[in-house]
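One chain shown below:
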Amino acid sequence: MIITVAQWAEEENISRVAAYKRIQDHAIPFVSKGKIDRDIANRIWKESANPAKQRGGEAGGSNGQEPRETFVEEQPPLFSGIPESPRTPTSAIGKVQLKRELLRIRREELLIAELEGRLVPRDDVREFESQQVAAAKELLLTAGAELRDELAATPSPTRCQELVDKRIHEALSKLSQWRPKKEPTQ
């Protein structure tokens, strides 16, 4: 569910500042300006935060020392929605989990696009293109044989051009309305 950071802070019983710190420290992605997906944020926080911090206690091990922070080296991002600043401390496991979650979301978006007909398999596009080229070739290569006698009997070059142009326009019109012989795979 998409909610504002303020709503998430209220649900988590923390201040807005603490909510923004969680978002920054654990690379929780924004869905839009000032809004996050509550389920993703909670999952990332639950899986990547220090258990002592989750309970509201002090961070650190049993020896009282602060745990070491890991810093992400500068790398090209796997997915553009992931902040990759080398100065942003994040837990390594949280970073991997975030990338996996964002990839899962992207895969679901692609599946929805395919189901809605906005995305088709590459092989179907290639098949359509090859059928389109074959249809164009068939329509245009027969024009010479069909116009041969009429062009030979026409003394005016302008009239010859009109006949050829008309035939080409007819062929292009047929091609614009042409449909493939088989339906795309579902």
User: Anything to note?
Assistant: The first strand starts at residue 2 and ends at 4. The chain has two domains: 2-115, 122-176. The chain has seven helices and three strands.
